[in-house]
Design a protein that fits this description.
Elements (H helix, E strand, L loop, with lengths): L1 E5 L10 H13 L3 E4 L9 H9 L12 E4 L12 H8 L1 H11 L4 E5 L4 H9 L4 E6 L9 H17 L2 E4 L2 H8 L6 E2 L23 E5 L8 H10 L4 E5 L14 E4 L4 H9 L3 E4 L13 H8 L4 E4 L13 E4 L6 H13 L11 H4 L2 H7 L6 H8 L1
Parallel strand pairs: 1-2, 1-4, 2-3, 4-5, 5-6, 6-7, 8-9, 8-11, 9-10, 11-12, 12-13
Helix pairs in contact: 5-6, 8-11
């Protein structure tokens, strides 16, 4: 079995669900993988140039011998009606490579981004089993014509594939009307990378409230400001790429550190006393199941988070402390949740079996994958 994977993120980025899926697929099937990096699927905006000035990227993971990375050429005109005809000329080499790769044996086609190129692949590789892995509400990241075009493409793709996964409860509900067979396949963690949880007394000072991840439009700097002012003797440590500059006037106990690779990120988390997920509640985050939540909990960290996405379903779970807007304002809610989180002792014994139950391999092993057409025909005989 081979795998063709159309990714929403470049291979040369912080390892996320797409990276974990292809690694799991290779490990479980010994498969070669053809990975397509994303290309621009909306019209350019001034914010894109700002990201180029302010953004930094984490170190890229090495490319293993079994993985072949290709970036399709494309003009940033996909929302326009003629874009498919124009870019199809530029995709000729990439489509030819995909056909040649699939000719080497039974192949699974996984689409992680609802782009026109993905639709072209589904049409060109009809004998491959196909899966759309819906990891976000992609249209919510777009505006105007780009949003409308993305929503149309995504629905077309969802109807064409053999199976659809949704990475959160909200996304599964969203797709249920289009695909009654949509599976909820939550995010997970890489248990093999976890360091040994560090024991820390609950009354230790100063405490470190930490976050590792991207800081972009969904990141709530007002919550960070409120937390830092409510805990002036503690540290608020933020690690990762910043695609929007932080606001001026942040308290001095806010530390801004550069991106790092996944193993370094987990070691950094192990130095925290409380794990942070300070995301805004909006359309961008409504369907998100944050990977860092599982990593924080597997390391025995209490989690301080807004009530967004899948997190709003976890308010009653041990070690989870949610803040939200309240009559006294966000500052009061953040301060109260931080006090509660600090009252939880940090131990070297996270919940027994937690990492194994929430490992990426456990998630993917339990989900149904479509078989290539040739294998489906054999199964029916």
């Amino acid at each position: 079995m081979r795998l063709i994977y159309v990714s929403p993120v470049p291979w040369a980025s912080f390892e996320q669900r797409p990276h974990k899926f292809v690694r799991w697929f290779h490990a479980s099937r010994g498969a070669e993988v053809l990975w397509f990096d994303p290309y621009p699927t909306r019209l350019p905006t001034p914010a894109d140039f700002a990201r180029l000035r302010h953004g930094t990227l984490p170190p890229a993971p090495p490319v293993p011998a079994w993985l072949h990375v290709v970036r399709p050429r494309a003009l940033p005109i996909e929302p326009l009606p003629v874009s498919g005809w124009v870019n199809r000329l530029l995709w000729a080499d990439a489509l030819a490579r995909a056909r040649a790769f699939a000719a080497g044996g039974p192949t699974l086609l996984v689409l992680g981004k609802p782009a026109l190129f993905a639709l072209q692949l589904v049409h060109a590789l009809e004998r491959c089993g196909s899966l759309y892995d819906a990891m976000d509400d992609f249209p919510a990241f777009y505006r105007g014509l780009s949003r409308w075009a993305m929503r149309c493409r995504e629905r077309r793709l969802a109807r064409r594939v053999d199976a659809l996964w949704a990475s959160s409860s909200a996304l599964q509900q969203h797709w249920h009307g289009v695909r009654g067979d949509a599976q909820r396949v939550l995010n997970g963690l890489d248990a093999a990378l976890l360091p040994t949880p560090r024991e820390r007394r609950a009354d230790a000072a100063p405490r470190v409230f930490g976050y590792v991840g991207t800081m972009a439009a969904w990141f709530d700097w007002s919550a960070i400001d409120a937390l830092a002012r409510a805990r002036p003797l503690d540290r608020v440590r933020l690690i990762g790429p910043r695609f929007e500059p932080p606001p001026s006037g942040l308290p001095a106990n806010v530390e801004l550190l550069p991106p790092c690779d996944h193993a370094q990120a987990l070691r950094a988390m192990n130095a925290f006393d409380v794990g942070l997920i300070p995301f805004k509640r909006n359309a961008l985050t409504a369907g998100v199941d944050p990977i860092k939540y599982y990593e924080y909990r597997a390391l025995g960290l209490p989690v301080l988070s807004s009530a967004f996405g899948e997190m709003q379903r976890r308010g009653d779970e041990a070690g989870v402390f949610l803040y939200d807007e309240c009559p006294d304002g966000i500052a009061s809610s953040v301060a109260a949740a931080a006090r509660a989180a600090c009252g939880v002792a940090r131990t070297a014994e996270p919940e027994a079996g937690y990492a194994g139950r929430h490992a990426w391999s456990a998630r993917f092993d339990a989900a149904w994958l479509p078989a290539p057409a040739r294998e489906r025909q054999r199964e029916r005989r």
